Amino acid sequence: MKIAMLSPIAWRTPPLGYGPWEQVVSLLTEGLAARGIDVTLFATADSVTQAKLHAIAPHPYEEDKTLDPKVWECLHISELFERAGDFDLIHNHFDFLPLTYSSLTDTPVLSTIHGFSSPQILPVYRKYNRKTHYVSISNADRSPELDYIETVYHGIDQENFTFQEIPEDYLLFFGRIHHDKGAAEAIQIAGQTGMKLILAGIIQDEDYYRSAVEPLIDGIRIRYAGVAGPELRNKLLGGAKALLHPINFNEPFGLSVVEAGACGTPVVAFNRGSMPEIIENGANGFLVRDVGSASEAVRSLDSISRRKCRDIVEERFSRERMVEEYICVYNKIIGEKI
Fold first, then answer.
1. Residues 6+ apart with CB under 8 A from 41
2. Residues pairing with 206 in the sheet
């Protein structure tokens, strides 16, 4: 079986820092390659993989502002579809745009829908519904207008996350600095509990950061650690008393929630989107309504077993489980046993 894996090109695959879609693509690609499956990864030229790498874009366009995103996205996607006949299946992780090429080939197209950026993109998914195949990353993130072949939760490489039995005395916000992710609410929770807070993540909304977050950063009680690469991410997640995830939108999945658990760190999250599918209330964290109930949950963190947090990740969110479930999806589509 020959698989074409289409990664986004905003960031490298795997990313050096931020890049959750690219991270999932990398883990899946490497897992498939380790199983001896013939995979060609379509990604940026500086990407790293044990599979075959095919690249048009020399660098991620978020890191090289001389690259026009739309131009290089079109070149990237068309490069794969012009070679579609070389593959038994195309696995698309590039959102809706590649679907518009799918009727031009007989090669089956599977799209992992990593979330809906807006209801305005749904017409494309509706047009190619049942003509292609869709995987959701949580049951909460399914559109009632679409048909899905399966839900496959993201997996992580647990070896990259160190279990830490005894945490330090701080709370952590780890994610995009954006209203959706609730950075300002995390600061409020820290204020109500009297605990230190470290924020880490890409500043996605500069205006939001300048108005709602930066004025409250004092470098002592509230500190911004910047964009955390793998080493710092592991250190921050493992040392935190809890990860705060006070989201203001319906989170499609939430990789940082799973990554925190792999370090033994419980999560206090607003009960929206996929959170009830990832967090077992009282076991590996708390599902809460608002800032006030989140603050109460922080005061109850000692009731959570950090070993249990790690165990849940090992049981439900391993890379191996994700790879195996995608192989089952591939088999359903092309009727071939790997």
1. 5, 7, 13, 25, 29, 47, 49, 51, 52, 53, 54
2. none
Q: Can you list the domains of the chain with their CATH numbers? A: 2-155+318-334 (3.40.50.2000), 158-316 (3.40.50.2000)
Element (H, E) at 2: strand 2-6
Direct distance between the N- and C-terminal alpha carbons of the chain, in angstroms, rounded to an integer: 7
Question: How many residues would you count in the chain?
Answer: 338
Average pLDDT over residues 321-328: 98
pTM of the model: 0.93
**Dihedrals φ, ψ of 110, to 5°?**
-110, 130
User: What is the per-residue burial (b if ≥16 Cβ within 10 Å, else e) of 4-13?
Assistant: bbbbbbbbbb
The dihedral built from the CA positions of residue 208, 64, 172 and 318, taken in this order, carries a sign that is positive
* Long-range contact pairs involving 58-61 (C-beta distance under 8 Å, separation at least 24): 60/9, 60/10, 60/11, 60/12, 60/19, 61/9, 61/10
String of DSSP letters for 89-124:
EEEE-STTGGGGGGGG-SS-EEEEE---S-GGGHHH
Q: In this predicted structure, what is the pLDDT of residue 118?
A: 87
Mean pLDDT of 88-101: 97
Q: What's the number of CA atoms in the CB half-sphere (13 Å) around residue 260?
A: 25
What per-residue confidence (pLDDT) applies to 117? 85
Q: What are phi and psi for residue 245, nearest 5 degrees?
A: -135, 65
pLDDT at 129 over 70: yes
In angstroms, the CA 283 to CA 262 distance is: 14
Strand 285-288 with 196-200, pairing: unpaired
How far is Cα of residue 169 from the mean position of the Cα atoms in its chain? Answer: 27
